[in-house]
Amino acid sequence: VQVEGCAVLELLSVDASNEVVHTVPSHVVDAVLGSIMAHPGSIDVGEAAINCLTTFACNAENVPLIEGNGKARGALETAFKNHPRELGLPLLALLGELMQVRKDLAGARAEERRLLELRSRCSEILKSLQNHEHGWVFATPVNPVELGIDDYFDIIKKPMDLGTIGEKLDQELYHSFEDFRADVQLTFENAMKYNEEQTVVHDMAKALKKKFDLDYNKMLMSLDEDHAENSTTGVEYDDDQRRILLNTQQKCDIEGRCFFHPEIQMIRRTELGCRKVLLYSCPRCELDSALDGAGVPWVLKL
After folding, report:
1. How many CA atoms lie within 13 A of 243 on its CB side?
2. At 84, is the pLDDT very low, low, confident or very high (cuts 50, 70, 90)?
3. What is the pTM of this model?
4. Which of 94, 105, 138, 246 has its CA 20 to 30 A from that of 6?
């Protein structure tokens, strides 16, 4: 009954195409973990429950429900201690999925912070240009009809202006400082190309381009200094990672090979009732890789 129940819950968690995993209620996670605790001696129940949890974990919203459940640690450690060989690979698949989701979320947050910093610093430079005494000249797109310059688009193939750059910043269309720099330089280079040297607009564009280059280089230097202050050298381990280092021992098969590391264990998730392919290795055999990054949610004493 427990095995079939876990199988049914796993099937209900995915859509008709068997590709999208839904968010599940917390009591469902609790019930799956409870089945392991209720039948610690059953390999079939343990495997069905762990595979079910691994499928749940394919949806990032389910990961906090699994990691935050009070039964999780005890249930998974119980499953591994009672059946290390039979349930070792399914457990690694689950832990690997949880680690990957955690890394993905951390990566998304880091990218969000990077883009926020990009917009903030670029907006500061842009505002300085717009507030300059010559900034009004380049504030809006050139209107050839209004200005009586019918040949403008014959000469300038890619128009750009400070107002358009501001709109692109607001719409989060810039994903690198270099993209922003290219548009600002294009604004002034267009003006210098269309207007001959020693004309008023040419000189204005030249002056603002020089100012921008100085401001941009100062910003990059400040950015490098800030990042250098926030970075650390070497690998620093938190308490859970140190426990892995202290408590993890190799589990060898009858031929003396590490059970979790025949070369690098390729776990085909399709064989475990899931859809992705996951790479994972023994924490002892590949300790540096295992401890590098965000760490793992549980410590299993092998």
Report:
1. 11
2. confident
3. 0.53
4. 105
